[in-house]
Known about the structure:
single chain, mainly alpha, 2 helices, 0% strand
Amino acid sequence: MELNMEREFHELKEKVDEIHRILLGSEHEQEVGIHSRVRKNEAEIKSLQDWKARITYFAYGMIVPASYGVFDIIKSLLQSLG
Length: 82
């Protein structure tokens, strides 16, 4: 009976060790765990969000000069036709 409990305990310990390795990686392979992958993905998402914000601000900044240019072209066309 005690031998059976000891075997079950060792099997449970191996399963917990495997779960720990999957979540956090091992001491030799820190980059293998889900935790490190999530941190990498969060950093990449943050980088993409920053890039998107810069592109958006650039596009908003170009609206005014572009609008002025289109207005100027239409004004010139109307003056040449009239």
